[in-house]
């Protein structure tokens, strides 16, 4: 079976600084994978490289057999990869509803996710639809950011640090939406520093350190020590 | 009575300044670009209307309908092939490039049309007035003001009621994240500059029918436009209209005291507003 998203030997730079070193991973249809790692491990850079925001200097990103490496970000979105960026990055001059609608800016056809369905997924967004997006609480802003990404009806949803700065109860509420998102046919890559959360939602976990994947496997197959070693780059030997 | 008449004339003059400024405000609001060639582009628009009027025999009010799409195309090309290349975190390159563009336009117009003053003839409407009892207002100044209000109203509708306007605002907020929404900022910028030059063409129509113009007067129009934008609050379209009115009224009041004070009074009003409200009268909340 061909992977939905395939990343091979991906290398990325910020100026002269190399942030990714030959990253390989695959995402199958309907799968959720989690990428864990400490600050500076290269997780966000990997997301930005996939979506065409960071400069890819080597390697390939293939979506459903089509090479989309170095395509501009808007092209990548129209091909079916949407991102929930770290820090939400809502548009301050847009209301909640406008922030959601802007996610459908490049959409050409019909799809499962409509404004009504997104508002049904996160009902608070309907109540607050006329508020400025940035006037909401952090958790509600995260819901807007997820809804905004879903409005493009993506085949692949990239979620960068969803739980960053949020209370555990809010994180739980946000992740409770994942089964519905998966049921809509969207495959998901979650970048998380919260290892426990990542292990709960993912079918497959990759741990990154210093721009490289240092550990991969199914959550059930990975021991606590192995994850600890890969995450912090230490050894029990 | 004289005071009311002075204020009314100032209000209507403010409409012309708002038209000068609306395009500048639009471009600044979306891409934070101060287009130093904006005044010269208005003058270029006036010459284009003059040329079309001469070639076709159409009334300037009809020629502007032909000139507007041509100016839109010019704006699109200018942004796509020149200005997009210099937009970035450094504000100096776009300033230098638009300054250079200003010089090129002035010299190009000088070569093509000489330094002689020209005027667009709107016919008998130029001399018509409306007697409202306490004041008598010229039909052309009234039309100018009504057009300024209509332009600002239309631009606000575009900004706040359409998908394109949403994309304008999103790109203005955060161009990188806008790309993740499938928005192509460079196209958005090209569209904005195209629309700005359509507004500049409307300004050119009223500038050309109201007074003489020659290739050298663009920078002074830019100055009025710039002052109106700053007084109104950067990026605020209704604020830009208010800014134009403040300058127009200040000039009218100054001229009523001493005709030599007309221009100076507008600049003094600009400085006073900045002293009292440094961010302008109606600054955008997120600027």
Task: Write a structural description.
Chain B: The chain crosses the membrane at residues 12-34, 64-83, 95-114, 134-159, 188-208, 228-249. Chain B: It is a multi-pass membrane protein. Chain B: Pfam families: BPD_transp_2 (PF02653). Chain B: This is Branched-chain amino acid ABC transporter permease. Chain B: Belongs to the binding-protein-dependent transport system permease family. LivHM subfamily. Chain A has 237 residues and is of the alpha/beta class. Chain A has a single domain, classed as Rossmann fold. Chain A has helices spanning 43-50, 73-79, 96-102, 115-121, 124-127, 138-150, 168-175, 178-183, 195-201, 224-232; strands at residues 5-14, 17-27, 32-36, 55-63, 66-67, 81-84, 156-160, 187-192, 204-209, 212-217. In chain A, the strands form two sheets. A six-stranded mixed sheet of chain A has the order 6-7-8-3-9-10, with helices on both faces. In chain A, strand 9 (204-209) and strand 10 (212-217) form a beta hairpin. Chain A starts with a strand and ends in a 5-residue tail after the last helix. The model of chain A has no long low-confidence stretch (mean pLDDT 92). Chain B has 287 residues and is an all-alpha fold. Chain B has a single domain, classed as Orthogonal Bundle (ABC transporter involved in vitamin B12 uptake, BtuC), CATH 1.10.3470. Chain B is 75% helix and 2% strand. Chain B contains eleven helices and two strands. Chain B has a two-stranded antiparallel ribbon with strand order 1-2. In chain B, helix 1 (2-31) crosses helix 9 (218-232), helix 2 runs antiparallel to helix 3 and helix 5 crosses helix 6. The longest helix of chain B is centred in the N-terminal third of the chain and has 30 residues, at 2-31. Chain B is globular and about 60 Å long. The A-B interface holds A 51-53, 72-74, 77-78, 82-83, 85, 89, 91-94, 98, 101-103, 105-107, 148, 152 and B 163, 166-167, 169-170, 172-174, 176-184, 284-286.
